[in-house]
Amino acid sequence: KRLDAVIGTHPHSDHIGGMAQIIREFEIGQVYLPEAVANTSAFEDLLLSIQEKGLRVEGAKAGATINIDSAVRIIFLAPMGSSYGNLNDYSAVIKITYGKTSFLLTGDAGALSEEEMIQSGADLKSDVLKVGHHGGSDATSFAFLEKVAPKYAVISVGLGNSYGHPDKETLDRLAFFKISVFRTDIDGTISFISDGKTLRAQKQI
Known about the structure:
By secondary structure, the protein is α/β, with parallel strands linked by helices. 26% of the residues lie in helices and 30% in strands. The chain is built from seven helices and twelve strands. It has helices spanning 13-16, 19-25, 41-53, 111-120, 142-148, 168-176, 184-187, and strands at 2-7, 27-33, 57-59, 65-69, 72-78, 93-98, 101-105, 128-130, 152-155, 180-183, 189-194, 199-204. The strands form three sheets. A seven-stranded mixed sheet has the order 4-5-6-7-8-9-10. Helix 6 links the parallel strand 9 and strand 10 (180-183). Helix 2 (19-25) packs parallel to helix 3 (41-53). The radius of gyration is 17 Å and the shape is globular. The protein starts with a strand and ends with a strand. The mean pLDDT is 95.
């Protein structure tokens, strides 16, 4: 009935296309969006739904935090800049830490954003990586994977999509680091359950 935090990673419709309905249907605590705009009906409808509810938008940018529970740490690691040529590089990248377990959610952040995060010295090490840009070859670089060093990687991707995602180069890089890969096109809905000490993955076709 209530969502404490709703995060629109960036204005592409495959990432924010259903958010307006979510905001209208649920009680919302806080909305986070990066400083990026798009001239699309999906983005305009999102802004309208936020206005209708009288909600204030918080900036999704490096250094911002979300305080929901004292046991859970949620911090934005990107975007680090304020001007990018590609909307994907405005993607909100979020690290969630619960006890000894951690998750890195990267939206569509590409190699440029990854390099900015590496250069910032941020603690990228995470147990679970949500692979950037649906497994496209323009993200998930060797250097980034080396820093994150995840046990598990999740690729959110449509079955038989026209983009050819995930890219073979990305899958090869994940295989090089011996990371266990889950794909929504093959494995269906993927959930991770954490008790703060251990992680357990569940698949539902």
